[in-house]
Amino acid sequence: MVINENVKRKIIPIAGGKGGVGKTLIAANLATELARNGKDTIVIDLDLGGSNLHTCLGMKNTGMGIGNFLSSREVMFQDLIQPTPYKNLRFIAGDVLVSGLANIQFSQKKRLLRNILKLEADYILLDLGSGSNFNAIDFFLISNSGFLVTTAQTTSVLNAYGFLKNLAFRFLIRAFNKHEEISKYLRKVIKERKPGSFVTIAEVVKKLRAIDLENGKKAKKYMSILKPKLIINMAESPDDLLVIEKLRDLIQSSLVLDVECMGLIYSDDAVTKSLSNHQPFTVREGESIAAKDIERIALKIVQSGRFPDMPLDLNYYKDTFELTQIEAKNDYEEITSLSKSEDEINIGDLLSIISTQKKQINELKGTLRMLTMNRP
Ligand SMILES: Nc1ncnc2c1ncn2[C@@H]1O[C@H](COP(=O)(O)OP(=O)(O)OP(=O)(O)O)[C@@H](O)[C@H]1O
Ligand SMILES: [Mg+2]
Question: What value, to the nearest 5°, has the Cα angle with vertex 127 and ends 122 and 133?
Fold first, then answer.
């Protein structure tokens, strides 16, 4: 696992427990923004079985992709890298040309991860498939600080929690794979998992302490290496953050994980408009709220000297959630003032229509009068 704060090249997997929450759009647009900030960026489509990142970048899927690499030993990973229409941004396609690779073998996954780790760039973004399956979790665990996308909707929030829960267990199993008794215990906990009677990581840490105090401490330390970040997408109002703060509290108490918030992206018509024009919305609709939200997230990454550590001004807010709350409120004011001015234009239009009609009626009245006056 790459510990991002210790290396120059940052790897950022983008996942989401639920399908359709905006992972691919965020990967494509965040990548174009990082590139626009002068950073050498590579974005990779790792949604095997559902690759569509090329469409969000406005590219045709004609070059070789991961599917070709996995199905032929002759294809070199370096040969998959394609230029994009955007300066500083390169792209690796998924498995659209050679499909049927949704369930890759462990050895294929390892080969893939090994090659991704050899890539040179400032930022490497990975667009992952939905769900909490082993593929998504293992790709997410390539580095310690991937992004988890969720909307404020209950199913999406629950799936985000489920994703992190599976992630935490898989990470601990890996960390203790040489410790027979602990591995056995962890596997048993996972196997016996029943809905409603879930053993939390907090309880696991307690149990590990009971087995051996040192290992209990180690487990807690391992968990502190993981620094996943949340992104809230398709928000309707700043209040959407309230449910995400509850999620944060649950993650903290049950999974012993400290999550931070990268930002909130509003639901915006500009997104769908630019999709139908086959261009990233940060390029096509650069002035839209959604584009500004992505721009802000990109700046947080770029301005963090030791990403994932955030450059925070704690004199003004207490943490990344409060900062996001302030940003979301400012955006919301802009959105509502924009719609207000649209209303004003409509009333203005209406007034001018009424005055034109009044004029026409007066003219008509005049004509009628003249007609009746001239009647013999
Ligand atoms: N901020 C937004 N504003 C408006 N619409 C959005 C926004 N984000 C995403 N969408 C809509 O959601 C759809 C799904 O987005 P996207 O394909 O990025 O999701 P995904 O999580 O990658 O899905 P999958 O799980 O299928 O890979 C988009 O086609 C777009 O219509
Ligand atoms: Mg996707």
Answer: 130
CB of 264 within 6 A of ligand 1: the answer is no
Confidence (pTM): 0.89
- Rounded to the nearest angstrom, the distance between the alpha carbon of 352 and the centre of ligand 1 is 41
CA distance 204 to 218: 12
Of 258, 292, 310, the one marking the end of a domain is: 310
Centre of ligand 2 to C-alpha 47, Å, is: 7
How many domains is the chain built from? 2
Q: How far apart are CA 182 and CA 163, in angstroms?
A: 22
Strand 81-83 and strand 89-92: the pairing is antiparallel
Whether residue 240 is found in the same domain as residue 146: yes
Residues 27 and 140 grouped into a single domain: yes
The mean pLDDT value of the chain amounts to 90
pLDDT in tens, 36-85: 999 999 999 999 988 999 999 999 988 899 999 999 999 999 999 999 99
The closest residue, in CA terms, to atom 3 on ligand 1 is 267
Pair (248, 331) in one structural domain? no
For the segment 296-304, the average pLDDT, to the nearest whole number, is 95
Cα of 340 vs centre of ligand 1, distance in Å, is: 27
Whether 294 and 363 map to the same domain: the answer is no
